[in-house]
């Protein structure tokens, strides 16, 4: 089941994490201090799921007068890169959040190493020469107790000596590991003597070649929270079984008692939300990059025309729950549509909607003098009168949308047809007199006449017409490339499908079409005064950074109405 938009505007009750925080403050825990952190691993770009975690962590600190650290969880040297660090900081700023401290788990390598020695000295960690396969066999399965490693009872002095030699680089990768001595009989597999250090002779993006042993995620994460005195460490549900281990380390090391709380991951329909999968899409060329407008990444959404406020609004509406759920991407689209409806200028653009047989039609107004030109004043945004008006040139030849004309119209077709009348938005009423075709039968132009008394704003014609269509003056139109996007995947939940996610891609997720747009739009986008716009009757669009002065490119953010949901209901 997917979840649907929650439009209730009644005052919201506390979510379960806010409730915990308020209880902690009331109980005087940590003297009422609230300190959260956002801990991305810099192994990919942030996605909309991360935005949920960001809004939650920064939102809590904001609400309760606390602080939030940005901590790069960079304990795995092979997958991490400074490109990702930079993109993460950029995306956070763009989303509107500033952090208290910028920390790196790798800054704690020495401290974490000392923690490991402390555990060894306390007799609760040991160096194991078993291979990865042997360790897996020892751990066994949750139904039966595991079997101890032959090295489990190594004397403390020998463990210390071996661990120091691991650090000194005396062994090759995989030769030995350090394991916590917890409980080989626990039904929780995380507690069956987890590996906490491994040998990896690899260059790290920050510590270079200083280290050849690296702490495992479970050993680094909780202790990093503790080092930073994080009061409420929020993570996703899959870490519930790790919490006892997190607490075990804190207890054994007798360090600041951070506490972990878990909330549900965000999953969104028609996309995948794991950095590993998104990286595959990039590397295999299924998308043009991490910022491809079809990607659920923050960079992709930004390029698609999403605004920071619409993403924050979405995160607010989905809330936080204690069970996993799949959110309808329609809710995300709803949030951006709501905002853009309030803020964007309405521009006229004539596009082809992707069908090669649906090119714009040229309309020739035979009773309008050749060479004559008028400037029409059209309101920028009927939802916001302060947005003013702009000049739109009009002339004898205009382009109209292919679908706004039908030669043999069905009943109740209120747009143009032979002998019929429509209003050209903000200009005149026109009548279609003649359809001109080439030898192949393709319409080359529509010959029309206009009613001079019908000019918008000073109409004395006394005529009423049912249809109003948009247009662009042929003499002034600027040609643009327009990219129309559809869902990246064909199925609602690709991650849960037994077919591989790469086989479920929607082959029609991008259509590139030609469009004629108003010249004012090009001036405005060039000067940077407009980024997001509405193309009347066509949707919300944004200028793409790959545009050049003579070849503007627009990405469709979202259609005006949820045509897709309507389709679903019909079908
Ligand atoms: P991925 O599987 O995409 O790599 P991750 O959890 O490994 O995700 P991290 O960089 O470790 O990614 O995540 C940083 C923070 O963002 C973590 O606290 C994590 O729980 C949270 N997070 C990641 N994905 C989601 C999601 N889909 N919904 C909510 N929070 C998420
Ligand atoms: Mg991760």
Features:
single chain, 571 residues, alpha/beta, Rossmann fold, Ribosomal Protein L25, Chain P, 3 domains, seven-stranded mixed sheet, 14 helices, 23% strand, elongated, disordered N terminus, binds adenosine-5'-triphosphate, binds magnesium ion
List the ligand species. adenosine-5'-triphosphate, magnesium ion
- Shape, please? elongated
> CATH H level of the largest domain: which superfamily?
HUPs
Calculate the mean pLDDT score and round it. 93
Helix content: 25-40%
**Structural class by secondary-structure content:** alpha/beta
Strand content: 15-25%
Number of separate strands: 28
From the N-terminal CA to the C-terminal CA, the straight-line distance is 18 Å
Strands of the widest sheet, in order across it, are 13-26-27-28-24-25-14
Query: How many structurally independent domains?
Result: 3
Secondary structure tally, helices = 14
Cα gyration radius (Å)? 31 Å
Structural description of this entry:
- It is a single chain.
- Helices cover 27% and strands 23% of the residues.
- It folds into 3 domains: 2-268, Rossmann fold (3-Layer(aba) Sandwich), CATH 3.40.50; 346-476, Beta Barrel (Ribosomal Protein L25, Chain P); 479-571, Beta Barrel (Ribosomal Protein L25, Chain P), CATH 2.40.240.10.
- Strand 26 and strand 27 form a beta hairpin.
- The relative contact order is 0.10.
- The strands form 7 sheets. Strands 13-26-27-28-24-25-14 form a 7-stranded mixed sheet. A 7-stranded mixed sheet has the order 22-19-20-21-15-18-23, with no helix packed on it. A 4-stranded antiparallel sheet has the order 5-6-7-8.
- It is elongated and about 100 Å long.
- The site of adenosine-5'-triphosphate has 15 residues, from helix 2 and strand 9.
